[in-house]
Amino acid sequence: MLDAVGFLSISVPNRLRGQTPVTPRNLLVIRIDHLGDILQTTAVPRLLKARFPESRVIFLTSSWGASLLENNPFVDDRVIYDAPWFSKKRYVRSSESLGIFELAGALKRRKIDLCLCLRGDLRENMIAWLAGIPQRVGYGITGGGFFLTQELTYRDKVHESRHTRDVLDAIGVPCDDLKPELYFSENETRSLSSKCSALGLPVSQKIVGFHVEAGSTAKQWPSENMRIFLRQLKARYPEGRVLLVGSDPKKTVELQVAQDPYFINSVGRTTLRELCQLIKQCRLFIGPDSGPTHIAAALGVRTLFLYSGTNVYEQWRPLAENAVVLRYAVPCSPCGLEDCHVPGHPCMSRITPEQVLEAVEKL
User: Are residues 217 and 314 in the same domain?
Assistant: First the structure.
Protein backbone atom coordinates (compact mmCIF):
# COMPACT_ATOMS: atom_id res chain seq x y z
CA MET A 1 0.00 0.00 0.00
CA LEU A 2 2.82 2.37 0.89
CA ASP A 3 4.58 1.62 -2.41
CA ALA A 4 1.37 2.24 -4.37
CA VAL A 5 0.78 5.64 -2.74
CA GLY A 6 4.45 6.56 -3.05
CA PHE A 7 4.55 5.55 -6.70
CA LEU A 8 1.62 7.87 -7.55
CA SER A 9 2.74 10.83 -5.42
CA ILE A 10 6.52 10.74 -5.86
CA SER A 11 7.65 8.37 -8.61
CA VAL A 12 5.14 9.38 -11.35
CA PRO A 13 5.86 13.15 -11.04
CA ASN A 14 9.58 12.41 -11.27
CA ARG A 15 9.06 10.41 -14.46
CA LEU A 16 6.80 13.07 -16.01
CA ARG A 17 9.50 15.68 -15.43
CA GLY A 18 12.06 13.35 -17.02
CA GLN A 19 15.64 12.76 -15.97
CA THR A 20 18.43 14.96 -17.20
CA PRO A 21 21.79 13.15 -17.19
CA VAL A 22 24.44 15.18 -15.38
CA THR A 23 28.09 14.93 -14.58
CA PRO A 24 27.81 15.02 -10.79
CA ARG A 25 29.78 17.61 -8.86
CA ASN A 26 29.00 15.87 -5.56
CA LEU A 27 28.31 12.15 -5.50
CA LEU A 28 27.00 10.20 -2.48
CA VAL A 29 27.46 6.50 -1.72
CA ILE A 30 25.25 5.03 1.04
CA ARG A 31 26.39 1.91 2.93
CA ILE A 32 25.58 2.03 6.64
CA ASP A 33 25.07 -1.61 7.58
CA HIS A 34 27.57 -4.32 8.59
CA LEU A 35 31.38 -4.36 8.47
CA GLY A 36 31.60 -7.04 5.80
CA ASP A 37 29.09 -5.21 3.58
CA ILE A 38 30.89 -1.88 3.94
CA LEU A 39 34.20 -3.63 3.23
CA GLN A 40 32.85 -4.89 -0.10
CA THR A 41 32.20 -1.31 -1.25
CA THR A 42 35.62 0.19 -0.38
CA ALA A 43 36.66 -0.02 -4.05
CA VAL A 44 33.63 1.97 -5.24
CA PRO A 45 35.12 5.45 -4.58
CA ARG A 46 38.13 4.70 -6.80
CA LEU A 47 35.88 3.53 -9.63
CA LEU A 48 33.72 6.65 -9.31
CA LYS A 49 36.76 8.92 -9.38
CA ALA A 50 38.06 7.18 -12.50
CA ARG A 51 34.75 7.88 -14.28
CA PHE A 52 34.06 11.33 -12.77
CA PRO A 53 37.52 12.73 -11.88
CA GLU A 54 36.20 16.23 -11.09
CA SER A 55 33.49 15.00 -8.72
CA ARG A 56 33.65 14.94 -4.94
CA VAL A 57 32.86 11.50 -3.52
CA ILE A 58 30.96 11.55 -0.22
CA PHE A 59 30.46 8.31 1.70
CA LEU A 60 27.58 7.93 4.16
CA THR A 61 28.46 5.12 6.55
CA SER A 62 28.27 3.99 10.18
CA SER A 63 30.74 4.82 12.94
CA TRP A 64 31.77 1.14 13.19
CA GLY A 65 32.53 0.98 9.45
CA ALA A 66 33.98 4.46 8.94
CA SER A 67 37.53 3.40 9.82
CA LEU A 68 37.55 1.09 6.78
CA LEU A 69 37.49 4.27 4.68
CA GLU A 70 40.25 6.13 6.54
CA ASN A 71 43.14 7.28 4.34
CA ASN A 72 41.18 6.28 1.24
CA PRO A 73 42.48 8.85 -1.29
CA PHE A 74 39.29 8.61 -3.35
CA VAL A 75 36.90 9.59 -0.52
CA ASP A 76 36.57 13.36 -0.14
CA ASP A 77 34.13 13.38 2.76
CA ARG A 78 32.61 10.90 5.24
CA VAL A 79 29.23 11.40 6.91
CA ILE A 80 28.46 9.25 9.96
CA TYR A 81 25.01 7.87 10.73
CA ASP A 82 24.43 4.94 13.10
CA ALA A 83 21.07 3.61 11.94
CA PRO A 84 19.08 2.38 14.98
CA TRP A 85 17.87 -0.67 13.02
CA PHE A 86 21.52 -1.79 12.87
CA SER A 87 22.92 -0.36 16.11
CA LYS A 88 20.30 -1.29 18.72
CA LYS A 89 21.62 -4.81 19.44
CA ARG A 90 25.29 -4.87 18.56
CA TYR A 91 26.54 -1.32 18.70
CA VAL A 92 26.28 1.74 20.88
CA ARG A 93 25.48 4.84 18.87
CA SER A 94 28.61 6.96 18.42
CA SER A 95 28.82 10.61 19.43
CA GLU A 96 29.84 11.28 15.80
CA SER A 97 26.52 9.98 14.53
CA LEU A 98 23.95 12.49 13.29
CA GLY A 99 20.23 12.19 13.99
CA ILE A 100 17.96 11.44 11.03
CA PHE A 101 16.87 15.06 10.45
CA GLU A 102 20.36 16.40 11.14
CA LEU A 103 21.57 13.92 8.55
CA ALA A 104 19.12 15.11 5.90
CA GLY A 105 20.19 18.71 6.56
CA ALA A 106 23.89 17.84 6.41
CA LEU A 107 23.41 16.10 3.07
CA LYS A 108 21.36 19.01 1.67
CA ARG A 109 24.15 21.46 2.53
CA ARG A 110 26.58 19.36 0.50
CA LYS A 111 24.45 19.94 -2.65
CA ILE A 112 24.68 16.33 -3.81
CA ASP A 113 23.72 15.67 -7.45
CA LEU A 114 23.71 11.87 -7.53
CA CYS A 115 23.21 9.21 -4.85
CA LEU A 116 23.90 5.46 -5.01
CA CYS A 117 21.67 3.51 -2.59
CA LEU A 118 23.54 0.20 -2.59
CA ARG A 119 21.55 -1.80 -0.04
CA GLY A 120 18.00 -1.29 -1.33
CA ASP A 121 16.51 -0.46 2.07
CA LEU A 122 13.34 1.67 2.22
CA ARG A 123 14.75 3.83 5.02
CA GLU A 124 18.00 4.56 3.20
CA ASN A 125 16.11 5.40 0.01
CA MET A 126 13.98 7.79 2.07
CA ILE A 127 17.11 9.49 3.47
CA ALA A 128 18.28 10.26 -0.08
CA TRP A 129 14.82 11.66 -0.92
CA LEU A 130 14.64 13.78 2.25
CA ALA A 131 18.05 15.21 1.37
CA GLY A 132 16.62 16.48 -1.92
CA ILE A 133 19.18 14.69 -4.09
CA PRO A 134 17.96 15.04 -7.72
CA GLN A 135 19.24 11.67 -8.96
CA ARG A 136 18.82 8.61 -6.75
CA VAL A 137 19.81 5.20 -8.12
CA GLY A 138 19.39 1.85 -6.38
CA TYR A 139 16.95 -0.91 -5.41
CA GLY A 140 13.60 -1.11 -3.63
CA ILE A 141 14.15 -4.55 -2.10
CA THR A 142 12.25 -3.84 1.13
CA GLY A 143 9.92 -1.36 -0.55
CA GLY A 144 10.47 2.34 -1.08
CA GLY A 145 11.59 2.07 -4.68
CA PHE A 146 9.36 5.08 -5.36
CA PHE A 147 11.87 7.24 -3.45
CA LEU A 148 14.38 6.56 -6.23
CA THR A 149 14.54 8.29 -9.60
CA GLN A 150 16.01 5.11 -11.11
CA GLU A 151 14.94 1.84 -9.50
CA LEU A 152 16.95 -1.13 -10.79
CA THR A 153 15.78 -4.71 -11.13
CA TYR A 154 17.14 -6.75 -8.25
CA ARG A 155 18.65 -10.07 -9.32
CA ASP A 156 17.99 -13.06 -7.09
CA LYS A 157 20.60 -15.74 -6.39
CA VAL A 158 23.61 -13.71 -7.45
CA HIS A 159 26.53 -12.52 -5.32
CA GLU A 160 26.09 -9.22 -3.50
CA SER A 161 28.98 -7.71 -5.48
CA ARG A 162 26.88 -8.22 -8.64
CA HIS A 163 24.23 -5.90 -7.21
CA THR A 164 26.85 -3.22 -6.62
CA ARG A 165 28.20 -3.65 -10.15
CA ASP A 166 24.68 -3.27 -11.55
CA VAL A 167 24.31 0.09 -9.79
CA LEU A 168 27.66 1.23 -11.18
CA ASP A 169 26.69 0.03 -14.66
CA ALA A 170 23.49 2.09 -14.45
CA ILE A 171 25.49 5.32 -14.16
CA GLY A 172 28.09 4.35 -16.74
CA VAL A 173 30.90 3.33 -14.39
CA PRO A 174 32.85 0.31 -15.73
CA CYS A 175 33.66 -2.27 -13.08
CA ASP A 176 35.74 -5.37 -13.62
CA ASP A 177 36.85 -5.94 -10.03
CA LEU A 178 35.36 -4.97 -6.66
CA LYS A 179 38.17 -6.36 -4.54
CA PRO A 180 38.13 -4.51 -1.19
CA GLU A 181 40.70 -1.75 -0.76
CA LEU A 182 42.15 -0.64 2.60
CA TYR A 183 44.75 2.11 2.95
CA PHE A 184 47.19 2.55 5.85
CA SER A 185 49.30 5.61 6.60
CA GLU A 186 53.04 5.52 7.29
CA ASN A 187 52.37 6.41 10.92
CA GLU A 188 50.04 3.42 11.29
CA THR A 189 52.64 1.12 9.77
CA ARG A 190 55.37 2.46 12.09
CA SER A 191 53.18 2.08 15.18
CA LEU A 192 52.42 -1.56 14.37
CA SER A 193 55.63 -2.88 15.97
CA SER A 194 54.87 -1.18 19.29
CA LYS A 195 51.34 -2.62 19.25
CA CYS A 196 52.73 -6.09 18.56
CA SER A 197 55.15 -5.70 21.47
CA ALA A 198 52.36 -4.61 23.81
CA LEU A 199 50.35 -7.72 22.92
CA GLY A 200 53.36 -10.06 22.99
CA LEU A 201 52.94 -10.86 19.29
CA PRO A 202 56.13 -12.53 17.98
CA VAL A 203 57.55 -11.42 14.63
CA SER A 204 58.86 -14.70 13.20
CA GLN A 205 56.55 -17.33 14.71
CA LYS A 206 53.65 -18.90 12.78
CA ILE A 207 50.52 -17.02 13.84
CA VAL A 208 46.94 -18.24 13.38
CA GLY A 209 44.19 -15.66 13.84
CA PHE A 210 40.93 -16.79 15.43
CA HIS A 211 37.76 -14.70 15.75
CA VAL A 212 36.03 -15.68 19.00
CA GLU A 213 32.62 -14.15 18.28
CA ALA A 214 30.26 -13.11 15.47
CA GLY A 215 27.85 -10.32 14.58
CA SER A 216 24.90 -12.42 15.78
CA THR A 217 24.43 -15.56 17.86
CA ALA A 218 23.06 -17.34 14.77
CA LYS A 219 26.50 -17.03 13.15
CA GLN A 220 28.46 -17.94 16.28
CA TRP A 221 30.39 -21.22 16.51
CA PRO A 222 29.47 -22.76 19.91
CA SER A 223 31.92 -22.08 22.74
CA GLU A 224 32.36 -25.80 23.47
CA ASN A 225 33.42 -26.45 19.85
CA MET A 226 35.87 -23.55 20.07
CA ARG A 227 37.37 -24.79 23.34
CA ILE A 228 37.96 -28.27 21.95
CA PHE A 229 39.37 -26.96 18.68
CA LEU A 230 41.81 -24.56 20.33
CA ARG A 231 43.15 -27.36 22.57
CA GLN A 232 43.54 -29.60 19.51
CA LEU A 233 45.26 -26.86 17.55
CA LYS A 234 47.77 -26.27 20.34
CA ALA A 235 48.52 -30.01 20.56
CA ARG A 236 48.95 -30.28 16.78
CA TYR A 237 51.07 -27.12 16.34
CA PRO A 238 52.89 -26.49 19.65
CA GLU A 239 55.48 -24.32 17.87
CA GLY A 240 52.82 -21.83 16.72
CA ARG A 241 50.73 -19.15 18.44
CA VAL A 242 47.07 -18.18 18.17
CA LEU A 243 45.94 -14.55 17.99
CA LEU A 244 42.45 -14.22 19.51
CA VAL A 245 40.45 -11.30 18.10
CA GLY A 246 37.07 -9.85 18.97
CA SER A 247 35.45 -7.13 21.04
CA ASP A 248 34.01 -8.93 24.12
CA PRO A 249 36.69 -9.88 26.71
CA LYS A 250 34.23 -12.30 28.36
CA LYS A 251 34.71 -14.64 25.42
CA THR A 252 38.30 -15.50 26.40
CA VAL A 253 37.06 -16.38 29.89
CA GLU A 254 34.45 -18.74 28.36
CA LEU A 255 37.15 -20.38 26.25
CA GLN A 256 39.36 -20.97 29.34
CA VAL A 257 42.50 -19.75 27.56
CA ALA A 258 43.00 -16.36 29.20
CA GLN A 259 46.13 -17.40 31.15
CA ASP A 260 47.68 -19.65 28.49
CA PRO A 261 50.71 -17.98 26.82
CA TYR A 262 50.07 -19.97 23.64
CA PHE A 263 47.13 -17.64 23.00
CA ILE A 264 47.74 -13.94 22.29
CA ASN A 265 44.69 -12.14 23.59
CA SER A 266 43.83 -9.00 21.59
CA VAL A 267 40.09 -9.20 22.34
CA GLY A 268 38.81 -5.72 23.18
CA ARG A 269 42.36 -4.30 23.05
CA THR A 270 42.58 -2.93 19.51
CA THR A 271 40.87 -0.45 17.25
CA LEU A 272 39.48 -1.78 13.98
CA ARG A 273 42.42 -0.22 12.11
CA GLU A 274 44.92 -1.91 14.44
CA LEU A 275 43.06 -5.18 14.11
CA CYS A 276 43.34 -5.01 10.30
CA GLN A 277 47.09 -4.61 10.57
CA LEU A 278 47.42 -7.44 13.09
CA ILE A 279 45.41 -9.73 10.84
CA LYS A 280 47.91 -9.03 8.05
CA GLN A 281 50.59 -10.69 10.22
CA CYS A 282 48.69 -14.01 10.30
CA ARG A 283 49.57 -17.03 8.20
CA LEU A 284 45.97 -18.22 8.49
CA PHE A 285 42.75 -16.74 9.86
CA ILE A 286 39.74 -18.71 11.13
CA GLY A 287 36.33 -17.29 11.91
CA PRO A 288 32.60 -17.21 11.19
CA ASP A 289 30.86 -15.14 8.52
CA SER A 290 31.96 -11.92 10.21
CA GLY A 291 33.68 -8.62 9.48
CA PRO A 292 37.18 -9.64 10.69
CA THR A 293 37.11 -12.89 8.69
CA HIS A 294 36.10 -11.04 5.52
CA ILE A 295 38.81 -8.45 6.24
CA ALA A 296 41.39 -11.25 6.49
CA ALA A 297 40.35 -12.63 3.10
CA ALA A 298 40.45 -9.13 1.58
CA LEU A 299 43.98 -8.60 2.91
CA GLY A 300 45.21 -11.75 1.16
CA VAL A 301 45.48 -13.91 4.28
CA ARG A 302 44.53 -17.56 3.86
CA THR A 303 41.11 -17.73 5.47
CA LEU A 304 38.87 -20.49 6.80
CA PHE A 305 35.21 -19.48 7.10
CA LEU A 306 32.80 -21.35 9.39
CA TYR A 307 29.52 -20.51 7.67
CA SER A 308 26.10 -20.60 9.32
CA GLY A 309 22.83 -21.20 7.51
CA THR A 310 21.62 -17.67 8.21
CA ASN A 311 22.19 -16.05 4.79
CA VAL A 312 21.81 -17.06 1.18
CA TYR A 313 25.27 -18.52 0.68
CA GLU A 314 25.49 -17.78 -3.05
CA GLN A 315 24.84 -14.09 -2.34
CA TRP A 316 27.27 -13.58 0.53
CA ARG A 317 30.02 -16.18 0.03
CA PRO A 318 33.64 -14.93 0.02
CA LEU A 319 35.08 -14.43 -3.46
CA ALA A 320 38.76 -14.39 -2.48
CA GLU A 321 40.78 -17.25 -3.97
CA ASN A 322 42.54 -17.72 -0.64
CA ALA A 323 39.25 -18.43 1.23
CA VAL A 324 37.95 -21.89 2.18
CA VAL A 325 34.45 -22.46 3.56
CA LEU A 326 33.10 -25.12 5.94
CA ARG A 327 29.30 -25.48 6.06
CA TYR A 328 26.74 -27.92 7.38
CA ALA A 329 23.56 -28.05 5.29
CA VAL A 330 20.26 -27.72 7.18
CA PRO A 331 16.69 -27.59 5.81
CA CYS A 332 15.91 -24.29 7.59
CA SER A 333 18.59 -22.35 5.70
CA PRO A 334 18.52 -19.50 4.87
CA CYS A 335 16.59 -18.29 7.92
CA GLY A 336 17.73 -14.65 8.07
CA LEU A 337 17.50 -14.72 11.87
CA GLU A 338 19.74 -13.06 14.46
CA ASP A 339 19.15 -15.92 16.92
CA CYS A 340 18.73 -19.59 16.02
CA HIS A 341 15.37 -21.11 17.04
CA VAL A 342 16.35 -24.73 16.32
CA PRO A 343 17.52 -26.73 19.38
CA GLY A 344 21.26 -27.30 19.28
CA HIS A 345 21.89 -24.73 16.52
CA PRO A 346 22.86 -27.53 14.09
CA CYS A 347 24.16 -25.43 11.18
CA MET A 348 27.07 -24.35 13.41
CA SER A 349 27.35 -27.00 16.12
CA ARG A 350 27.60 -29.76 13.48
CA ILE A 351 30.79 -28.17 12.15
CA THR A 352 33.08 -30.24 14.37
CA PRO A 353 36.46 -29.25 15.84
CA GLU A 354 37.99 -32.23 14.03
CA GLN A 355 36.70 -30.97 10.65
CA VAL A 356 38.15 -27.53 11.29
CA LEU A 357 41.52 -28.96 12.36
CA GLU A 358 41.61 -31.13 9.22
CA ALA A 359 40.93 -28.04 7.08
CA VAL A 360 43.71 -26.15 8.89
CA GLU A 361 46.15 -28.98 8.15
CA LYS A 362 45.25 -28.86 4.44
CA LEU A 363 45.75 -25.11 4.37
Answer: yes
